[in-house]
Write a structure and sequence with these properties.
By secondary structure, this protein is mainly alpha-helical. The protein has one domain. 69% of the residues lie in helices and 4% in strands. The strands form 3 sheets. Strands 1-6 form a two-stranded parallel sheet. A two-stranded antiparallel ribbon has the order 2-3. It has a two-stranded antiparallel sheet with strand order 4-5. 34% of the residues are buried.
Length: 428
């Protein structure tokens, strides 16, 4: 399955791939280009519209129907409906339809449904406490009533970013394994520090930046409030985070150059992966309008990586598995169109399916706008404080699918510990 080491004049650069050169360059490394495509669309909107968050770049006319091509449609909804939600389905197909997962991880599979309760409970808790204290003359302000939602959605977005970074780390380690790059303890430590600093420092740079407080959808952290004269915590930390980022990049390049000079082989696949993702994460946090869309920008490549690795696992395992109980998984992973269609059907059932219509008719809810607001909030383009209570709860319920996905993902891809995963990915 894996290709042999690439024979080029620079023989000390190792290019062992997870699948093969073509598939790895398209899906695992080149997938970051999807994020750059979105960045290009957003930058075009910034340059050509007065308000890039709401103005349409163009209008698509189809018969008597007019569809304004806004960034919400071109970036957020295209990502959420066509790529992100189906990748959540990929986790469910790879776990709940696999009898081996039920045998090994039944407890985790059952616990994962609890993540659907966390958001609604966190959002409603201040209201319940406020109702209990009201008879004693203690009344919560609107800020404290919305504090549970604020904490939950901040937690959700941070976990979403952590989840993306951890998947990149998983591919980073797979390339280290494939290229015999795990024996040098010092190299492993340098890689670990470089990887985490290069991907988390852009987030710290944004949070301490002069434009953080003017970025729509992000609560004020107070880091730019003057402590004395013209000094603030953000003003002090912002240049420090910038310096640390530049030092991290330069130091790692110097480290690799030194290893090259000393005759050590370089892991070309690992370095190419980092070259594809670090600039994307840096740019995504470098402009207030780009940051508004940071979730789809840094997640879309992760989604494509994930689809490919789940498809590889499903083809390898279920294509050969003939035991009873694997019929549905074997069918889903037998052909790519079936895999794609089932993912889109899951999206339809989750976002616009019959149950949505049932809720609308039964409760008279105006769910269309609530739905779009909820998805936009999770994507980062709507401030949670601007949603009504029903929209917050609805968004938290939908985010349960993502939270379940994050949780299960942390359990099912442990390559070093799980021989079944190594076999499914072909990296034994």
């Amino acid at each position: 399955m894996a290709s042999p080491t690439l024979s080029i004049p620079l023989a000390r650069i190792r290019w062992n791939w997870i699948i093969d050169r073509k598939n790895d360059l398209i899906w695992y490394i080149g997938s970051a280009l999807a994020g750059w495509l979105y960045i290009g669309i957003i930058l075009f909107a910034i340059r050509t519209t007065q308000n890039p968050l709401t103005d349409a770049l163009a209008t698509l006319r189809f018969g008597g129907l007019e569809i304004p091509l806004t960034l919400k449609l071109l970036v957020v909804l295209s990502w959420a409906f066509l790529i992100d939600s189906p990748h959540v389905w990929a986790t469910l197909a790879r776990t709940y339809l696999d009898p081996d997962e039920w045998r090994v991880r039944r407890r985790e599979l059952m616990i994962s449904w609890g993540w659907f309760l966390l958001g609604p409970v966190a959002i409603l808790l201040p209201y319940l406490i406020g109702a209990a204290l009201s008879p004693f003359g203690i009344n919560f302000s609107p800020f404290w009533l919305g504090f549970g939602a604020l904490i939950y959605f901040v937690f959700f977005r941070l976990w979403a970013y952590y989840h993306v970074v951890r998947q990149h780390w998983g591919f980073f380690m797979l390339y280290k394994r494939r290229n015999n790059d795990l024996d040098d303890a010092r190299e492993n430590q340098v890689d670990k520090w470089f990887f985490n600093l290069s991907l988390y420092l852009p987030l710290a740079m944004f949070m301490t930046s002069p434009f953080y407080d003017s970025t729509p959808g992000f609560p004020s952290l107070g880091l730019r409030h003057n402590l004395f004269e013209n000094f603030s915590i953000g003003g002090i930390l912002y240049p420090i985070t910038w310096a640390l980022f530049l030092i991290t990049i330069i130091a790692y390049l110097g480290w690799q150059w030194r290893r090259w000079q000393n005759g050590a082989p370089l892991n070309g696949a690992k370095l190419l992966l980092m070259l594809s993702i670090i600039p994307l994460h840096f740019v995504a946090f470098a402009h207030p309008i780009l940051v508004v869309f940071v979730v789809p920008l840094v997640t879309v490549g992760h989604n494509l990586q994930y689809h490919r690795i789940v498809w590889t696992y499903g083809q390898n395992k279920y294509g050969e598995e003939q035991r009873p109980g694997f019929e549905i998984a074997r069918k889903i992973f037998s052909r790519l169109p079936i895999y794609i269609i089932t993912g889109l059907l899951f999206t339809f059932a989750l976002y616009q399916g019959p149950w949505i219509e049932f809720l609308r008719k039964t409760f008279g809810w105006q769910l269309d706008q609530s739905l779009l607001n909820s998805i936009a909030m999770m994507a980062g383009i709507v401030d949670p404080s601007k949603l009504n209570l029903g929209e917050k709860i609805f968004a938290a319920m939908i985010s349960g699918w993502a939270m379940q996905h994050y949780y299960l993902d942390s359990k099912i891809w442990r390559v070093r510990r799980d021989a079944m995963v190594r076999k499914g990915l072909g990296v034994e």
